[in-house]
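Design request, tokens follow.
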């Protein structure tokens, strides 16, 4: 890959720049090439894979089943790839992504170890000027963010971390070489999906594990196991049908979505249904009844079933109580899917510290000091999550019309049209952006739908000889109102979660994804296209130039 020459005063020109080379960036690249565009993707890692490149922590695994957590755009690809387990391990997903990059010859347009740091819209020429941390200066007509929803990791600001004599890690930026915890005393801060997956695996090696928990989470067993040849063949035989069905569901995943409400059945039947789903494993549990996400009492019944399971599993009743969530509705924080999480707390060398009762005061050279004690540790694992959905965009200085920063426009929460575009930033597209189903779905399905929509939009522009696309402010306002209205009908906003931006100090409390259902969302996107891209204003670069010239002549600021 030839890099642009940083010392050159001339800028390399592309038709499209893609930020990121994970699932989203790779498929976007593939589609843009089909349109005959000159494309460059920039990727911060020294390999492709995005989230799955960085998240190498012990036990890292997807909580969507293998046969579904994969691309559907190539029938040959989905038939030829062989998954080994019900839920795929990080290493296997990364191998798959690398296979895709090779199979479709995508690497030649990807520049690795390069982070986009700035992108400024030039209204006069209707193009974006993009700068990277490697000194590349490029201009491009289209700028497409495939930067990911869970890629900006957060290490909390705890006094004294610099003084710690041991090693510390963040689950989302794990070293590439194996970290050996054998015989070590390990502290894990955080009990979200990452912590819950990592803790049992770390406990297999470590001499001592201290789990620092602020909020307990609900977790459902994965019952992970090898996939049999017959299962795979049966699934593959019906792949197109399965995919089509999944795309019409609420989360882009083939779960058993119940049509019954919690009180449609008696207590005995209800418990049987919870039990049946518990035994099947995974997030399918939260769809046991159709009112779990909207009715607090119904939610409580499902939550109590899980709390009872925790009480039955964890031998020490005090520990069981601490591990039992009672401050939020089940499912309103991302439901966790685990292997032996609760069982791990029965091990002699694993202990739980309740940070609500005894908060962390500081990190000291020897370990972690809470209100109650100092825990001596050789390593600290931060499983403390991400600045989700908007964090990866915030890290880039993006300036649209009139030099306005995206960060400023979104200072009170992100505003988008369909989660795909934002007014004032022409030709900027987001894949799984805020205001789209994104993190509430099988994200690969959501990515494919967004990439296809963007590609179709660009194809339309090619056909009509248009080169500027920007959503209308009124359409954006309407979409933002709709996203909020739909969220307010559910229990989600009642919970302080990363869906709400509540895990990042100072981040506006806004429900970030679109909770109206993936199937419904896709229909809305299709309607928009059918109505000639309702809500999107198209133009030509020449018209933009003329407008800029007129503005300049009359010294008018660009709006
Ligand atoms: P999450 O789900 O955001 O979990 C982070 C955990 O870290 C959670 O238990 C937090 O407790 C805890 N946390 C965060 N900051 C602190 C501080 N300062 N002190 C103590 N504890 C803290 O991130 P994950 O990486 O587990 O999962 C992210 C997504 O990746 C997941 O949903 C899947 O989609 C994959 P809190 O709840 O804030 O009290």
């Amino acid at each position: 890959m030839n890099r642009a020459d940083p010392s050159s005063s001339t800028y390399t020109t592309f038709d499209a720049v893609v930020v990121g080379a994970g699932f989203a960036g790779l498929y976007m690249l593939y589609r843009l090439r089909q349109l005959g565009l000159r494309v460059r993707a920039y990727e911060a890692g020294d390999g492709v894979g995005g989230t799955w490149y960085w998240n190498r922590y012990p036990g890292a695994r997807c909580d969507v089943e293998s046969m579904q957590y994969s691309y559907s755009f190539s029938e040959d690809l989905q038939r030829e790839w062989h998954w080994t387990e019900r839920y795929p391990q990080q290493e296997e997903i990364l191998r798959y992504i690398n296979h895709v990059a090779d199979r479709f010859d995508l690497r030649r347009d990807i520049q690795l170890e390069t982070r986009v740091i700035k992108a400024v819209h030039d209204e006069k020429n209707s193009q974006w000027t993009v700068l990277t941390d490697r000194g590349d200066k490029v201009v491009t007509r289209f700028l497409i963010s495939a930067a990911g929803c869970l890629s900006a990791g957060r290490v909390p600001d705890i006094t004294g971390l610099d003084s710690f004599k041991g090693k510390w890690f963040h689950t989302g930026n794990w070293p590439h070489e194996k970290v050996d915890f054998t015989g070590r005393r390990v502290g894990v801060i955080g009990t979200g999906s990452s912590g819950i997956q990592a803790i049992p695996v770390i406990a297999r090696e470590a001499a001592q594990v201290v789990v620092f928990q602020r909020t307990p989470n609900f977790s459902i067993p994965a019952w992970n196991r090898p996939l049999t040849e017959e299962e795979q063949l049966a699934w593959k035989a019906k792949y197109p049908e399965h995919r089509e069905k999944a795309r019409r569901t609420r989360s882009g995943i083939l779960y058993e979505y119940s049509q019954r409400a919690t009180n449609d059945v008696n207590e005995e039947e209800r418990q049987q249904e919870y039990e049946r789903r518990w035994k099947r494993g995974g997030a399918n549990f939260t769809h046991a009844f159709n009112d779990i996400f909207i009715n607090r009492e119904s939610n409580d019944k499902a939550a109590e079933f899980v709390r009872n399971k925790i009480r039955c599993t964890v031998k020490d009743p005090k520990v069981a109580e601490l591990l039992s969530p009672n401050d939020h509705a089940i499912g309103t924080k991302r439901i966790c899917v685990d292997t032996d999480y609760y069982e791990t707390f029965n091990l002699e060398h694993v202990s739980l510290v309740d940070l609500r009762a005894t908060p962390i005061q500081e990190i000291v050279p020897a370990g972690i000091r809470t209100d109650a004690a100092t825990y001596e540790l050789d390593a600290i694992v931060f499983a403390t999550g991400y600045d989700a959905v908007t964090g990866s965009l915030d890290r880039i200085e993006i300036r649209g019309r009139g030099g306005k920063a995206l960060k400023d426009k979104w200072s009170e929460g992100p505003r988008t049209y369909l989660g795909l575009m934002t007014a004032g930033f022409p030709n900027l597209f987001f894949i799984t952006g805020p205001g789209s189903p994104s993190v509430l779905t099988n994200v690969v399905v959501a990515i494919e739908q967004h990439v296809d929509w963007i590609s179709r939009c660009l194809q339309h522009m090619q056909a009509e000889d248009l080169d500027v696309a920007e959503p209308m402010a009124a359409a954006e306002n309407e979409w933002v109102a709709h996203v909020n209205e739909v969220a307010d009908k559910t229990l989600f906003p009642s919970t302080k979660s990363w869906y709400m931006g509540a895990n990042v100090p100072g981040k506006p409390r806004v429900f970030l994804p679109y909770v109206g259902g993936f199937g419904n969302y896709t229909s809305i996107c299709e309607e928009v296209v059918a109505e000639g891209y309702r809500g999107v204003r198209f133009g030509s670069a020449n018209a933009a130039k003329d407008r800029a010239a007129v503005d300049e002549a009359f010294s008018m600021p660009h709006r």
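Comment from the thread starter after seeing the answer: thanks! Residues 553-559 have pLDDT under 50 and may be disordered.
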